[in-house]
Amino acid sequence: MRLGLDIGGTKIDAVALGGDDAVLSRVRVATGFGSDAVVRNAHEAAIQAAEAAGASAAALTSVGIGIPGVVDARAGVVRHAVNLGLEELALGRVLSERLGASVRVENDVNAASLGAYHLLGLTASMAYLNLGTGVAAGFVSDGDVWRGARGTAGEIGHIPIDPHGIRCACGQIGCLETVAGGGWVARKWGGDAAFPVLEVFDRADAGDERALALRSELIGGAAAGVRILILTADVETVVIGGGIANLGERLLDRVRANLDELALGSQFLSSLELSSRVRLVPPGSPVAAVGAALAGDIENAPVDA
């Protein structure tokens, strides 16, 4: 039995996979803040997921973890996960000692990429466009995650696309993230809605001009992300995931329409058939946790100290 943990800013989503890659159990616990809390709650999530699958931690053959921040997958170390209160944590080694199983730590978007690739039954090449609080991407080719020379492949959220845009947290002007990131949409929209992007879409449907403008900007940014991924890596499929993907067809239909409209003015873009190469993650599926479990199984050996 393999375990996958998706450690997010507020919750840990944990799944246990059987030998046929079927999800045997799924549990969620609060993440906490700081090294001690994250380790304690990740350990608890692992135990609960194993028990919910009718087994004990001793039955685990491997554990994979998807977590935000700068991840050294070989050493099992995560750095600069600011939203979790982690400056540097040897998470792989610590949890391996507690669980008695090999533990592999992976960047959360890379884990989600692998999970989406698996759950959608894809082959060849895929890019996972994560539209959440921020914007990032992951690449999978023939079932393997591609990280790049220094582990930063897919940081497309910080590609400037609007020289007259606003300053991004990274210091550049007009980054893709400032257009298509949920956090930036929420700042521009204001208010106290629990799900600002959803409110923007609802208000736009009702004809609110400011909401219509923000929605159009977000859709244009998401379509730009798709174009960037296909034009730079020529992946066969772009899968949109992250919190904004929960909008479902309300998002996908508009992104496809935007891509088709752009193709009308460019024979080159038309030849690429962009809109037909875009998909959404399966609704409600634990793609990041499943991907983490699969990542943990790829190198089923003790992590480096």
Automatic annotation (TrEMBL):
InterPro entries: ATPase_NBD, ROK
Domain of life: Bacteria
Family: Belongs to the ROK (NagC/XylR) family.
Protein name: ROK family protein
Source organism (scientific name): Gryllotalpicola protaetiae
